[in-house]
Design goal:
Structural class: mainly beta
Number of helices: 0
CATH architecture: Trefoil
Distance between the termini: 18 Å
Largest sheet: 2 strands, antiparallel
Shape: globular
CATH topology: Trefoil (Acidic Fibroblast Growth Factor, subunit A)
Number of strands: 6
Radius of gyration: 14 Å
Strand order of the largest sheet: 1-2
Length: about 120
């Protein structure tokens, strides 16, 4: 699967990115580590803006997972980590971070396409 950039429709020229690659620092609390943010699109493609969308393995429930960085675009420390709603919070505005995969429902996503890809 090819690396993918995920861009918000409401603001051209931005992409899903990692706020601060501090995942391994134990002094930073969960929820503040490696948050996903929107940031100016980097050209050429930055590793921190590269994602892979894949089906959740059959024995782990339905949905898709979004893995940070792939192959030659990988940044140290992030290969295999996925988008994760912090503490599986259910309220609007819940923080999203990059976390080791555990296949919980807070790491699985439904993806809806409202228009055909061009």
């Amino acid at each position: 699967m090819l690396p993918t950039q995920i861009m918000p429709v409401h603001l051209p020229g931005r992409a899903l990115d990692i706020k601060d690659p501090t995942y391994s620092n134990p002094a930073i609390p969960v929820g503040e580590k490696a948050r996903a943010v929107q940031r100016q699109l980097s050209v050429p493609t930055s590793g921190s803006q590269t994602w892979r969308i894949f089906s959740t393995p059959a024995n782990h429930g339905d949905g898709f997972m979004i893995d940070h960085n792939v192959g030659r675009f990988a940044s140290p420390g992030y290969v295999g980590r996925v988008l994760d709603v912090v503490w599986a919070e259910k309220n609007d505005g819940a923080a999203i971070q990059v976390h080791d995969p555990h296949f919980g429902s807070n790491q699985r996503w439904d993806i809806w396409v409202s228009e055909p890809f061009s």
